[in-house]
Amino acid sequence: MLSYRHAFHAGNHADVLKHVVLIQLLRYLGQKEAPYMFVDTHAGAGVYALDTGYAAKSAEHESGIARLWERTDLPPAVDDYVQLVKTLNPSGKMRYYPGSPYCANAVLREQDRMRLFELHPSDSKLLEENFRKLDAHAAAQGHRSGGRGKRVMIQKGDGFAGLKALLPPPSRRGLVLIDPPYEVKDDYRRVKTTLADALTRFATGTYAVWYPLLQRMESRQLPDQLKRLPGKDWLNVTLSIGGASPDGFGLYSSGMFVINPPWTLESNLQALMPYLVDVLGRDADAGFTLETGVPTAVQRPAVRS
After folding, report:
1. How far apart are CA 38 and CA 17, in angstroms?
2. Domain coordinates of the chain in residue numbers?
3. Are 182 and 211 in contact (CB under 8 A)?
4. What is the pLDDT of residues 154-204, one digit of tens each?
5. Is residue 105 within a helix (H) or strand (E), and if so which, with residue range?
6. How far apart are CA 221 and CA 204, in angstroms?
7. Are residues 121 and 37 in contact, defined by beta-carbon separation less than 8 angstroms?
8. How far is C-alpha 231 from the geometric centre of its chain's CA atoms?
9. Rounded to an integer, what distance in angstroms lies between the CA atom of residue 116 and that of residue 165?
């Protein structure tokens, strides 16, 4: 199925969680001089207009980035994320929202590499166009290429299947983001099998999986299935902006599951998640969970709020 378009959901509370965590992971990898590779298996269009088209129709960004836009009390990691979004909006008006590829491109260094997959034909074309615009802007500013070429490669295709050929990366350092649309049940199965295979090829890599928390059984079971992957540290964080709607529709909660997380991530999230609940929450059922596991019989308990 190729009906899903992320533009409907751009900048919502789930994007806030995903991109705050993603930027922290990339910043950590960038602390060492050695290059690393970032792979996005479901890259989308790269940039989304918030005042026209799908995003304007759904206006989901009003429950996410819009609530952070003018805050002056942002925790450091949240401020890092918001400032990155603002670089895409130099007029100060919130018109565009960056997808994961743009967030990564803003953080990656010249020596790092990015590999992007997108199967949807329209979004794949938009992704190509958006990175060409980045190149043109960089050239106009007298900088090196901001996008395509050796540093960034874009492939129209199935990211689940395409990931195999990239692992392990030449530098033996890398982050893989897996963020499928979860339109069909098979997406949940493929997340698990893709990760299991990837860990045999590149056991020391960092893997981040975004997932929705929905009423369907597959959604509820996925994080527990990922916890049972053998021999790897993991971190699981969820953000709920409120209780489920009576009709069961609408995304009210999502999570990020990270395999081989940096040691700093847990403490950073413990500090910032209560803030996100306070600012983005819509009712008394808003909250978060944060839990970690290690490859032994002893696991650290979950932190809940």
Report:
1. 18
2. 6-304
3. yes
4. 999 999 999 999 999 999 999 999 999 998 899 999 999 999 999 999 999
5. helix 100-107
6. 25
7. no
8. 24
9. 13
Q: Give, to the nearest 10 degrees, the angle between helix 121-140 and helix 100-107.
A: 30
Three-class DSSP category at 287 = strand
Instruction: State residue 262 phi and psi, 5-degree precision.
Output: -65, 150
pLDDT of residue 220: 87
Reduced to 3 states (helix: H, G, I; strand: E, B; else coil), residue 213 is: coil
pLDDT band at 77 (very low <50, low <70, confident <90, very high): very high
Q: Report which residue type is found at 228.
A: R
The 3-state secondary structure of 251-275, one letter per residue: CCEEEEEEECCCCCHHHHHHHHHHH
285 flagged as catalytic = no
In this structure, are residues 249 and 281 in contact, taking their beta carbons and an 8 Å threshold? no
Q: Which of 79, 179, 197, 285 is catalytic?
A: 179
Answer yes or no: is pLDDT of 106 > 60. Answer: yes
Question: CATH assignment of 6-304, given 3.40.50.150, 1.20.1330.10, 1.10.10.10, 3.20.19.10?
Answer: 3.40.50.150
**Strands in 43-185 per DSSP E:** 47-49, 96-98, 113-118, 152-156, 174-178
Distance CA 175, CA 281 (A): 30
Whether pLDDT at 18 is above 70: yes
Residue 217 has pLDDT above 50, yes or no: yes
Both structure tokens of 68 = 């952070």
Q: Is 7 helix (H, G, I), strand (E, B) or coil?
A: helix
Residue 110 burial by CB count (10 A; 0-12/13-18/19+): exposed, middle or buried?
Answer: exposed
Exposed e or buried b for every residue in 244-273, given b needs 16+ CB within 10 A? beeeeeebbbbbbbbbbbbeebbebbeebb
Helix (H, G, I), strand (E, B) or coil at 233: coil
Ordered DSSP codes for 56-87: HHH-GGGGTGGGTTT-S---HHHHHHHHHHHH
